[in-house]
Amino acid sequence: MRIKTLIAGACGLAVLPLTGVGTADAATAASTLQLPFPCGETWAGSSKSSAHTAGYEIDFNGSANDGNADLGRTVVAAGAGTVVMSEYRKTDGLGNVVKIRHSDGTVTLYGHLNARSVSNGATVRQGQKIGTVGKSSAKYNLIAHLHYEQRTSSGSIVPAKFNGATFAYPNQKVTSRNCGGGAQPQTGNNNGGGSSNPYSATQVCGSGFKQIDSQNLGSAGKVVLLYSAATGQNCVTTLRNSGSGKASVQAYLQVEGKARKKDAGSYQYYAGPVKDTARKTCVKWGGAIGSAKYDSPLEHCD
């Protein structure tokens, strides 16, 4: 990752102690946190900078070699909570930094921001914009990136988790599932246990997408095709009806003349978003939940 060679020595940041916070269980601290970027975006993370003294800090860029291309891109809250720091720091090299304390005592930190959108003491929702990617620092010459940490209530930096999965240190590309618009999944139903799916197709695919087709996958859920007139992109997501446990879920999109794009895994709520540009071009799309599947013909060519 390009950032490793350009900011070595720049992110050796002292752990800032917290006060007035209860103890947190490190094993469960990040269970509900999501990637700190808008739904559907894919970011390359690296912990390989020699200045990352704890070894669990992550520097994020939109791709492995994008220089300052990410300057000004949106950073969102990994989880709901209270802003316990929003300031410009000089001595430790953080520059513009936001720190959020979550309900279980976990703290997330977002450093080197170009701008901060929230103030100290503010209550924020998961997925709410808190700033923009930058390269701010009074001590170091950086390229634009987000320096991100997850900490216990005592201030110890711990392995980061996104959507319940531990980041694959030292490098991994991660697609954001921070898609709930700040809403927390609602658990439980009239029968006790289990839950309904709190996400819609437009939440998964993001602002500007409108549904143009869908196909039920028996009683398990549905696969949905959406389109954004502004960007010319199609988006496919497969949504489970139930949020109880996990299931094998997949979604795919293939633009005529291009390779198929696919997302598949053991998911609680949905697979995708899978996006590709398809202005006036035919597409094949589909998905599956368990053994129930749908494969479209080549269609939607307008």
Supply the key terms.
mainly beta; disordered N terminus; 4-stranded antiparallel β-sheet; globular; 2 helices; Glucose Permease (Domain IIA); 22 strands; 2 domains; 302 residues
Count of alpha/pi helices: 2
Low-confidence blocks of residues: 1-30, 181-194
The overall number of domains is: 2
Q: Could you say which structural class the secondary elements and strand pairing correspond to?
A: mainly beta
Give a written overview of the molecule.
This protein has 302 residues and is mainly beta. The chain folds into 2 domains: 2-175, Glucose Permease (Domain IIA); 201-295, no CATH class. The chain is built from 2 helices and 22 strands. The strands form 5 sheets. Strands 1, 2, 4, 5, 6, 8, 10, 11 and 14 form a 9-stranded antiparallel β-sheet that branches. A 4-stranded antiparallel β-sheet has the order 15-16-17-20. Strands 19-18-21-22 form a 4-stranded antiparallel β-sheet, with no helix packed on it. The radius of gyration is 20 Å and the shape is globular. Residues 1-30 and 181-194 have low confidence and may be disordered.
Give a brief outline of the structure.
The protein is built from 2 helices and 22 strands.
Layout: helices, strands, pairs:
Elements (H helix, E strand, L loop, with lengths): L1 H5 L35 E5 L11 E4 L12 E3 L4 E9 L5 E7 L5 E7 L1 E2 L6 E2 L4 E4 L13 E6 L5 E2 L2 E2 L2 E2 L4 E5 L25 H5 L4 E8 L3 E8 L4 E8 L6 E9 L5 E7 L2 E8 L5 E7 L2 E4 L7
Antiparallel strand pairs: 1-2, 1-14, 2-10, 3-9, 4-5, 4-8, 5-6, 6-10, 7-9, 10-11, 12-13, 15-16, 16-17, 17-20, 18-19, 18-21, 21-22
